[in-house]
Amino acid sequence: MITIQFREKKDAVLFFQYLKEHDHPNTGLVHANIIFEPEVLVKINSDECFDAIISTVMIPVLLKYIIKTVEVKWMKEMIRDMFYFTDEEEQRQIMSIARAIIEGEKQELPAAIKLNEYMPRDAMIENALKDFLTGSVSFSFESFLQFRLKDYRFRLARYIEAAIDEYKLEQEYQNFVENLRNYVYGKDALMDTVHLVYDKEFKFFDRNFNEISKEQLRYLIDEQLVKIEDLDVESLVVAPLISIAPRTIYLYTDDDDHGLIQTIQNIFLERAVLLPMTAFQKKSK
């Protein structure tokens, strides 16, 4: 028999629900019940081979419970208490980034690459459970979390650190884009229309599809742009566009994910019209 003591009734009920919903043939061989007084306990037993029940039912259910409930709780506490982000929207955004890093959706981040080289966090939990659940045992779930999952908790803190770094970079980027957008929408356009082509390199064309040379682009760059932090005024893409502030930019590319393409769209919003390269080839003939 395995007896698990929970601190709160709701925790025991949720775990019990996960246990009942577990999709494995051996789940039907498990006998479980909840006791609320004098302690909150979940008792699990089986008439069959208990080792098989532990590996196919108990460990997967506890793993799911820890990831879906404990992990979320710990991460929220770390964001608030370790890193002092008290705003709920900031907490939500950091949590979202952290979970994306954990799930491998932020592979472009150096910190994420390094963290994901280690043992996956679900494997860390599973190994701790395998070492602990070796037969009949009675234990406090809170004590198990505190003493058996220290490395896992430390890993979560590392994920949060990486997420906060990424969140700060995103905030800086958004502020940068907003400053450029305000600049563009607050000045008169030097040209109504610019055609911008990206095919391995950026090329500018006027409304009549005459190419604008690099020398001309340098000449057009507004000296006032040096006041905008983080803007590379030597750049012959963003700086000339900001200076020209066209009412319409036709962006021709087959690489929609290019960073500068996305930045231009974020700055110019409805003024930027994204088109495939074939559209430029047809129009410029």
TrEMBL record:
Pfam families: YtxC (PF08812). It comes from the Bacteria. NCBIfam families: spo_ytxC. This is Putative sporulation protein YtxC. It comes from Calidifontibacillus erzurumensis. The gene is ytxC.
